[in-house]
Amino acid sequence: MNRKILSFLGQNFKGDRFIWVIILCLFIVSMLSVYSATGSLAYKMNVGNETYLIKQIGISILGVFLIYFTHIINYKYYSRISQLLWYISIPLLIYTMVFGRHINGASRVIELPLIGLTFQPSDLAKIALIMFLSRQLRIK
């Protein structure tokens, strides 16, 4: 059984195995830290520690799937996507500065309508900036 699993992983998870090991280690460390840090919060909310652990596992599994699917995509497509992200992030940052929710005296987040979740455009801008600068360095 173990050989079948290792064979499946070897065929489908191409790339640098060291990076995949780091991702797995970060996955495990995040589970441990969430489980140990949410004890008092779970007590205040009158739920079990496992509630936050299960939520973290779900989010982490989704993250690993996203990493897997992004590593399948040819890197040349990211060059095109970086330009689009760069042009989207600038108006989002301006919108956040003017209309964003004020938390501790600063506008950092915008609330997504109908969903009720908040989004921090500066995180998108960080990724867009790194991708766009990489694209520009490759072109010149």
Task: Please give a quick description of this structure.
With 140 residues, the protein is mainly alpha-helical.
Write the layout of secondary structure elements.
Layout (H helix, E strand, L loop, with lengths): L1 H11 L4 H21 L1 H7 L3 H24 L2 H25 L1 E3 L2 E6 L6 E2 L1 H19 L1
Antiparallel strand pairs: 1-2, 2-3
Task: Describe the overall structure.
By secondary structure, the chain is mainly alpha-helical. The protein folds into two domains: 72 residues, no CATH class; 67 residues, no CATH class. It has six helices and three strands, in the order αααααβββα. β1 and β2 form a beta hairpin. α2 runs antiparallel to α4 and α5 packs across α6. The protein is flat, with a radius of gyration of 19 Å.
> Which stretches of 5+ consecutive residues score pLDDT under 50?
none
Q: Count the helices. How many?
A: 6
Rg calc: 19 Å
Shape: flat
Order of helices and strands: HHHHHEEEH
The side-by-side strand order for the widest beta sheet comes to 1-2-3
Mean pLDDT: 82
Main β-sheet description: 3 strands, antiparallel
Overall helicity:
over 70%
Question: Number of folding domains?
Answer: 2
How many β-strands, per DSSP?
A: 3
* Distance from first to last alpha carbon: 50 Å
Helix/strand-derived category reads mainly alpha
Strand percentage: 5-15%
